[in-house]
Write a structure and sequence with these properties.
By secondary structure, the chain is an alpha+beta fold. It has a single domain, classed as Aminopeptidase. The protein contains five helices and eight strands. Strands 1, 2, 3, 4, 5, 6, 7 and 8 form an eight-stranded mixed β-sheet that branches. A hairpin with a 5-residue loop joins β2 and β3. α1 runs antiparallel to α2. The protein is globular and about 40 Å long. The N terminus is likely disordered.
Length: 168
């Protein structure tokens, strides 16, 4: 039997520039190697410095200080055509290392994003997700998010994104 540390053995923090290479590696690996995105999108997934200019990057480290999760929290402006008003916050590119999945790390990141969005005075959290990301859909629904089908969109041929929202 493998001993899997609980979510209490991890900590969440704002990403530092020295975290960018690991965030890029993890994000590309989860999305591209996991079959959720094509190689063309890998360039954007790997552009962590560019993402850091448009969003607050949060990371989760395990008990050994290994970065095992990341998310981009958008509180101002727009990043990927997700928000429609100043009252909305968004999350992008939520990833959890496959070796750490099932420990509540994705939920921890989402809960922290919701807390920070409320503290910033936002009224709604929105996100776009691939139709293939069914485990992520379950997480969002468990957290109280609802589908917002009128905002579904297709950023590129064959890439269908669905939108979820949660009133804060």
């Amino acid at each position: 039997m493998v001993d899997v540390p609980s979510v209490s053995a991890v900590r969440i923090a704002t990403a530092a520039p020295e975290d960018h290479p690991r965030i890029a590696e993890l994000t590309v690996s989860v999305y591209v190697d996991g079959g959720l995105a094509d190689q063309e999108y890998a360039v954007e997934l790997a552009d962590v410095p560019g993402r850091a200019e448009r969003a607050e990057l949060l990371v989760v480290r395990d008990g050994t200080d290994r970065l095992v999760g990341s998310v981009a929290l958008v509180l101002d402006g727009d990043f990927g055509e997700v928000t429609e008003s100043e009252e909305e916050a968004a999350v992008r590119m939520l990833v959890v290392d496959p070796t750490a999945q099932g420990r509540g790390i994705g939920e921890l990141l989402m809960t922290e994003c919701l807390r920070r969005a409320r503290a910033a005075g936002k009224r709604r959290m929105v996100l776009s997700t691939s139709t293939a990301m069914t485990s992520a859909h379950r997480l969002y629904e468990r957290l109280g998010f609802s589908r917002l089908p009128e905002r579904d969109w297709t950023p590129a041929p064959g890439v269908d994104l669905i939108v979820y929202a949660l009133d804060l």
